[in-house]
Amino acid sequence: MNHTSKMNEEIHAMRQHVRDDRREVAKSLFNDEQVITHALADEKQLQLACKGLDVRTAAIKLNEDVFVRHKWLNYLRHQRMARERRLEAANTQLQSPHFNDEAIQDGY
Predict the structure, then answer these.
(1) pTM to 2 decimals?
(2) Region 96-101: what's the mean pLDDT?
(3) What are the residue ranges spanned by the domains of the chain?
């Protein structure tokens, strides 16, 4: 066997190896896309946002979205609790004897 034919065989083997690796990556990405599509079947907007991403990147993106929603929920919870405290303070002030004396004096 001469040197040229040996090189050709090595080149052929390397090309075959690259082809196999590309098929494996494509299959993996397709499976990732199916997992994302199935997991987000009810969430069309999230499905579109994660389309074309691998599972790891999609998970990171979704975790970021969850973090933002969690932050917003904490903000809303804090606002509600602050309103409840103000309402409770107003009710306490309204029920205080001092407030009732002032109301009577003012003619209410």
Answers:
(1) 0.41
(2) 65
(3) 1-53, 54-108
